[in-house]
Amino acid sequence: MSTQSVAPRVLVLRAPGTNCDEETAFAFEKAGAIAERVHVNRLIENPALKDRYQILCFPGGFSYGDDIAAGRILATRLREHLAGMVDSFVHGNGDRLVLGICNGMQVMMRLGVLTEGVSEDDQPPATLTWNNHGRFEDRWVHLAVDAKSPCVFTQGIEKMYLPMAHAEGKFVARDESALSRLRDAGRLAVRYTDESDAGVSDEVLPFPINPNGADANVAGVCDASGRVFGLMPHPERHIEATHHPFWTRRKEQPEHGDGLAMFQNAVQWFA
Ligand SMILES: NC(=O)CC[C@H](N)C(=O)O
Fold first, then answer.
1. Can you tell me whether residue 78 is helix, strand or coil?
2. Residue 154 CB-half CA count within 13 A
3. pTM of the prediction?
4. Is 3 contained in some domain?
5. What PANTHER family does its record include (predicted)?
6. For 97-128, b where at least 16 C-beta lie within 10 A, e where not — what string?
């Protein structure tokens, strides 16, 4: 853990087609961080820019139009031009955080940083593919957090109600052994669940509870350290209590929306 006491600085990485960078920067700022939106081309011109930041965030959207596969082109650009930057956040001295939201998680899956250390060969142990019904799906989902997960972002959170909005968000493990390795290490940190707060379930739940058909209802995955995390739902879209779809019908308003705690956890980690 870092000994730094000032507000952490967040690099919210933009690329052509990114569309959640403003909201994501707002969420980090509301949680007490200093967030800057930086275009990938500025980083390629000047990779030393990365040294200003303690948190790297890949926001949601349609980077490079989701061409080839969602997240593929941005991941390839990062691998070709900014591998050192990615490595310094993911590994480095272990004193930085990485968060990917939706298209950001897709980029991180393509980079392999969320499932590192699981395969014994060079084949990816898991991927994200098209939702079962083959369409873009936009709806609010109930999520359960794996209490034994090392994920820095979900500490102290049991459940969340967040919007999801994606076409290529179905988590698929290569085989049962890859899935159980990830699960046993608490790396399948966030799962779709039903309204009854049933908690984490490995049995695939029906649509629309599990909106895409993901193996073990996986909605978010972290690395072995818990510092590197990606999720398909959008915490930055539920920051204020009034973002909740039924806020006018609730008797009591919570202080914040469910998504804020994840950003607060990230800031807290540097305190
Ligand atoms: N909200 C998003 O980030 C969208 C992710 C991606 N473009 C998809 O549809 O799968």
1. helix
2. 30
3. 0.97
4. no
5. PHOSPHORIBOSYLFORMYLGLYCINAMIDINE SYNTHASE
6. bbbbbbbbbbbbbbbbbbbbebbeeeebbbbb
Write the ipTM: 0.97
Out of 20, 102, 151, 222, which one is annotated catalytic? Answer: 102
- 20 catalytic residue (yes or no): no
- State yes or no: is 234 an active-site residue: yes
Nearest 5°: the CA angle 260, 262, 266 is: 115
Looking at the 3D structure of the chain, how many domains does it have? 1
- Considering the domain boundaries, does residue 90 fall inside one? yes
Residue nearest to atom 8 of ligand 1 (CA): 166
Question: Residue 90: which CATH number?
Answer: 3.40.50.880
> Phi and psi of 166, rounded to 5°?
-160, 165
Of the candidates 20, 142, 151, 234, the residue annotated as catalytic is 234
> Is residue 2 assigned to a domain?
no
Domain that holds residue 37: 9-268
Question: Do the bridges between strand 159-166 and strand 137-145 make them parallel or antiparallel, or are there none, so unpaired?
Answer: antiparallel
Residues enclosing ligand 1, CB less than 6 A? Answer: 60-62, 66, 70, 102-103, 136, 165-169
Q: Is residue 4 part of a domain?
A: no
Identify the pLDDT of residue 63: 98
pLDDT digits (tens, 9 = 90+) for 151-199: 999 999 999 999 999 999 999 999 999 999 999 999 999 999 998 878 9
Catalytically annotated residue among 23, 137, 168, 236: 236
Mutate to test the pocket of ligand 1, among 102, 136, 171 (most ligand atoms within 8 A of CB): 102
Active site residue 102: yes
